[in-house]
Amino acid sequence: METQPGFVNWQTDNNALDKGEVRAMAWNAIGHGSEAVEYWQSRSALNGQEQHHGTLIGADGTPVSVAHPLA
């Protein structure tokens, strides 16, 4: 299952996910038979359209707050 670890860059309204929501989505996928959970994208891009997409690791290499419950 591929999912996003935060907000997306293609919606009109981009809401931050609630605390624990990313972890709940991962367990939901596993509970429905997923063999793996992958995050698009794991690290922020330095430029381009996808630099504003939610990630697990910031452009500077430090984990963002949503990454800690997934570690």
Automatic annotation (TrEMBL):
The annotated region (Disordered) lies at: 48-71
Sorted alphabetically, which keywords does the UniProt record give?
A: Glycosidase, Hydrolase, Metal-binding, Zinc
Q: Which Pfam families match?
A: Glyco_hydro_42
User: What processes does the entry annotate via GO biological process terms?
Assistant: carbohydrate metabolic process
Q: Which GO terms describe its cellular component?
A: beta-galactosidase complex
| InterPro entries for this protein | GH, Glyco_hydro_42, Glyco_hydro_42_N
Any one Gene Ontology molecular-function term assigned to this protein's record: beta-galactosidase activity
Q: What is this protein called?
A: Beta-galactosidase GanA
